[in-house]
Fold this sequence. Notes:
Layout: H1 3-13, E1 20-22, E2 28-35, E3 38-45, H2 60-84, E4 93-99, E5 102-108, H3 123-143, H4 162-167, H5 172-175, H6 177-186, E6 191-193, E7 202-204, E8 209-211, E9 218-220, H7 222-233, H8 236-258, H9 264-276, H10 278-292, H11 301-316
Antiparallel strand pairs: 1-2, 2-3, 3-5, 4-5, 6-9, 7-8
Helix pairs in contact: 3-8, 6-10, 7-8, 7-10, 10-11
Domain Aminoglycoside phosphotransferase: 66-258
Organism: Pseudoalteromonas rubra
GO molecular function: kinase activity
Amino acid sequence: MSASALVSHVMTMLPDSQHSQALWSGCGHIYKFTYQGDMLVAKVATVPAQLDHRHITQSEHSLHRKFRSYEKELMFYRDTAQSYASECALPEVKAVANHNQVFISVFTDFEAQGYHNISKADPSHVTQMMTWLARFHAIGLVSSPSRGTYGRGNYWHLSTRPDEYERMMSGLLKSSANQIDQRLLDCPYQTLIHGDAKLANFAFSRNQALGYDFQHIGEGIGVADVMLLLSSLYCGRDLELHAEQYLDVYFEQLSEALAEHWPKEQFLDLEKCWRHLWTFVWADFHRFLLGWKPDHEKLTSYMLHQTELCLEQLGEA
């Protein structure tokens, strides 16, 4: 099948499709369909002038950010995914297109390949996701010449959230936001990060995870993905119990993924750098949440403690 014919088929079938799932806040739909005997999935995204979200009033800046996120996702699937797929499972891309600001991505249905979404992760699932992240980050550390074309990764970094920053109450975290951001930028070990690593963006087979949804891909440090994933899995006492455990798992897997490419001393230097910034990635996300939804359930005691440690480190500098 040609990619252009497949995209045309998707555009033709949209009005009549009965097998769809809405995307976040009115930004389009996911469609499942069969084409020439293959079970496929199409992600068809648009950006409305106003989002269907009770906590968000869309500014010009946020509108541009959302457009850019879908552009980045298409870029990744079109230009980069193939070089990553041998090390970490990704959707099999059949076609991508930007059709008059309608962003279309077509994939083989990963359920037909033995992967399934889950609503609650057990320890084996968490380890599989940490392994996936480690392998993904390792590729960017070793050989990703295109990572700079995506700009910064994740959806909460300071430069992409001026509206939320302005809404923050005055305080030490707000006044330290630029310092925290600069520390993350100054880290010499930058890689390509997923940017929205949460349980909903992974599917699982019997022995590995598959990652998808790359709207917030870009440059960053790997532990930012680890932090976000853990915040999507645990809260309260569970987060305090498991965060350091799975951070160790992540670094074990990253060491293994880099073993053939880097001397041990270089990996240990990266680990030291990223572990030092562990409190900073939590404080950075904390800053975003306070400006977006200050009663968010992710504002846990663990996050607050990590922010305190981060601010103490800044005060000692």
